Carbonic anhydrase
Amino acid sequence: MIPDSLIDGYKSFLGDRFARERLRYETLAETGQSPEILVIGCCDSRVSPEVIFDAGPGELFVVRNVANIVPPYETSGQFHGTSAAIEFAVEALKVRHVVVMGHANCGGIRSFAQKSAPLSSGDFIGRWMSIIAPAADTLEDPGEVPSEDYMARLNLAAVEQSLANLMTFGSVRRRVNAGEMELHGAYFGVATGHLLVRDPATHRFEPVVTDVGVPPSLFRSY
Amino acid sequence: MIPDSLIDGYKSFLGDRFARERLRYETLAETGQSPEILVIGCCDSRVSPEVIFDAGPGELFVVRNVANIVPPYETSGQFHGTSAAIEFAVEALKVRHVVVMGHANCGGIRSFAQKSAPLSSGDFIGRWMSIIAPAADTLEDPGEVPSEDYMARLNLAAVEQSLANLMTFGSVRRRVNAGEMELHGAYFGVATGHLLVRDPATHRFEPVVTDVGVPPSLFRSY
Amino acid sequence: MIPDSLIDGYKSFLGDRFARERLRYETLAETGQSPEILVIGCCDSRVSPEVIFDAGPGELFVVRNVANIVPPYETSGQFHGTSAAIEFAVEALKVRHVVVMGHANCGGIRSFAQKSAPLSSGDFIGRWMSIIAPAADTLEDPGEVPSEDYMARLNLAAVEQSLANLMTFGSVRRRVNAGEMELHGAYFGVATGHLLVRDPATHRFEPVVTDVGVPPSLFRSY
Amino acid sequence: MIPDSLIDGYKSFLGDRFARERLRYETLAETGQSPEILVIGCCDSRVSPEVIFDAGPGELFVVRNVANIVPPYETSGQFHGTSAAIEFAVEALKVRHVVVMGHANCGGIRSFAQKSAPLSSGDFIGRWMSIIAPAADTLEDPGEVPSEDYMARLNLAAVEQSLANLMTFGSVRRRVNAGEMELHGAYFGVATGHLLVRDPATHRFEPVVTDVGVPPSLFRSY
């Protein structure tokens, strides 16, 4: 049976949020969605984009894969789920913003840094995570046991890689160059709740709010 | 610049939900995630799994792609985002439930039914949606203009297809057959808020709550 | 037998240029090469980088393939000649400049725009030229017979694509972001001898010399 | 900014060579190229084919990759730059001669002989140079530190390998066997300026000019 927690959660949603936003859901069903923002986030259970950005229905078009990765534009192979979602968001929905959002403690990034053994003979995770290999090339060798600081920087370097990969899509490049769409990098610290946003000029990730009340040592920029 | 709506939403999250659940986030960062449920949902901006199931941090491992599709196990090509996420959830996180959740008014399903022209030369959406072709084969020919009823049934048939594709993964099959993991199908009606859940015995999708107060005509089971 | 034209040309080189630059060749053989510039040019017989830039031995590290293309960083398949050359130039030679140089009347670009039939069952040209498909997506549909103006713009859009693809190489990104290396786009007009160089701020290609004495109509910027 | 040396070189080309050969460039732009010779050369900055063969515009169709390698005909993977160039030269331009030109002091060949560590995680150079492994198998084991004589012989063996690989292309084999096209091997000594050409009967590389005035010891045949 489907878990009770899902049924209970759904009833809570029905009685509370859906009851309050009912008209919005009805209108969105009738008119179709027209979100302005595409978020490429991680599958991780701690980093729901709708929760972190307190977003309502119709606001965020959300792709979630392991480690919030954008592959380069390449058409070998048959099924490209993330590239399909980007194509749909950019060409059909014409979103105005794309946010690649990394987060601390990402298991996919960690499995790459630790050179984990394949989980199955298909080695889907190993091949998927290999997309960030050129990002790791931009950092120093982490040694046997990657430090937490290294892990955070690898996460941000992977966001940079995904932003570069996005620009290999002709549709993305055309709309960015025409000023019709912007690309953003972000990073959520699960433990501290801090959100870093990439400065497009300096490529540094800086906190958007500086008075969250967390120890400064956990709140650095990169 | 990153949209103000995201910054404002984040501040609201920080002051409200994160403030209330801070300990949980801290603990989850320390101990790592151990969700019991994998949800495979659509990118659509109206169907956030965390919202619909009123789920807290750590509860749902969420893959989102266009039309909540699971491809069959196949290893040609290099990058398989959804298969990587399934492999990670099943083999590393050892989730106990997998929910494939379709929804009404899905643009990806519609583009397939209407045989839309490619959005770009890569035709990522076209190739991605071709995964549901065998699902369409289980239904009658929709004619030139597919009816809304046909669209709903195609959506559910696509969920069935994804459930069958899940069973092509050896790791999924092994854990399901050992009673360690269950597969579920679900369907969310955006306009009405109803949630249908697939009965594993009859393969019919039935409402989990029957007194939402929506017109019965919008609330049928399939 | 090897063509006489090559033997005659070699004798002319020996008696003239090699005689004059002998010391330089000897020194370069002893110390090894240390070019500061990587040029990615076309195989076309009319666009030798050493001729157009009047470059001496040791100055230009030159990759030449059909249509001066950089593929995205992707490691499926076994042999990546251009990616290998980029890796060598960037990581071993540490060049300071990379120039992607397109040219007018490119047969590879034309075969793509005209959707030419495969030349052999391997369809190497068709698959190679497919790298510029996302560049074509940034332009309007050329119709049945692409205009010369369209061809020129497709050529420049393909240079843009290659510049974006270069940024998917971690080593390129690291050195560019550190200010250690610059990427440039250029375009040579075979008939007029004009050279356009891409302005990194506006992404427009502008003539570097404006008094060549060619009709202005043949000398526009893009 | 694009390096001044390129701008200065281009101005020199414009005022000198282009001024003298202007009609030829104009004609070549109008009629298209029809080179009779394909040269497969190295990216090395010291071995420009147009310089060494004193060739004018329209004469040489030039592929340049690391170590002037022809891969075998194989179609796994998506992008085959060198095979695409060969296909274009042989099938579309119908060249009458193909010259594979090696050279002394080749960094790619050296990195193979010394089993250098990968330059990046993609290891593009390592995989590319693995094409000459069967060439190395035709020579004795070089020991820890390969001698210069071994390096020269490995270079020539790699040219032999590329000539054999060329014959794995059906189109090449057909035209060679029909007497419509010839394959040649050549080798340029950077320090001495000597050019060796392969004798198709003996497979030995012999100097084409014997009175260059270099010490005989640097001028042996192989």
Observations:
- The first helix of chain D runs from residue 4 to 20.
- The radius of gyration of chain D is 19 Å.
- Residues 33-218 of chain D form a domain with the Beta-carbonic Anhydrase; Chain A fold (CATH 3.40.1050.10).
- The CA atoms of residues 71 and 165 of chain D lie 6 Å apart.
